[in-house]
Every structure is written in structure tokens, then in C-alpha cells.
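If your schedule permits, I should be very grateful for your opinion on a structural question. Kindly check, if you would, that the fold set down in the C-alpha cells agrees with what the sequence suggests. Thank you for your consideration; the sequence and its C-alpha cells are set out here:
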Amino acid sequence: MALAANAYAQYTNTKAATAKPAELTLMLYDGAIKFCNIAEGALENGDNSKANENILKVERIIDYLLATLDMKYEVAKDFERMYIYINSRLVEANVKKDLEIVQEINGHLHAIRDTWVEVMKRAGVK
């Protein structure tokens, strides 16, 4: 089992190291959704510690996306507002252990990811 986990980690690291910037952004969105899903399940099961851990992972991903915005593009301001809103809701969800807020954020993350995939297709990236 440890060998399989190690092989998967190596594959993931290689995939990230060789990915184009647009693909890396997609991987970050996928990760945020994954951790948001885990947080949802944890809240449903009353596991506040696991929910906290995974909400914080989503926050770190959103923080990274926010920090790496290229503000010379007008659309970056829209992303900035969106990421700030998502992070503020994540903090609120974590403090209140509020499943509905986590579900709301998960919906936003799915919409952002789906839009990003469409942008990548139109740009011929993937």
C-alpha cells in the first residue's frame, strides 16, 4: 500500500511539474473541490476537526490563487473579489461549522472550475 501511495505521489508531482499554467490552475480548482467535498462529509458526520483541516486547505488554495493573480488584466479584479468572498465565507463556515456555507462554496468552486475548463478548451490548452 505504501508503495502505491509513493508511486501516486511521484506521478502527481511529475504531473504538476510538467503542467502548463492553465493546467496548474485547473489542478488547484480540482484540489479545492476535493477538500471542500471532504469538509462537507466531515461536517455531515460531526467530525469538526477533519472539517477544519480541509476548510483550511481550501483557504490556502484560494489564498495562492489570489496571490498569483496578474493584476494587469482587468478580469483579475473580478477574480480577486470572488476569491476574497470565497475566503471570507470559508472562515465563517469554519467558525460556525456551517454545512450550508461549505455547500455554497463548493457550488461556486464547481462553477469556476467548469468555466475555467471552457476557457482552456477555447484557448486550445487541453
In short: The mean pLDDT is 92. The chain has five helices and no strands. The CA atoms of residues 26 and 113 lie 7 Å apart.
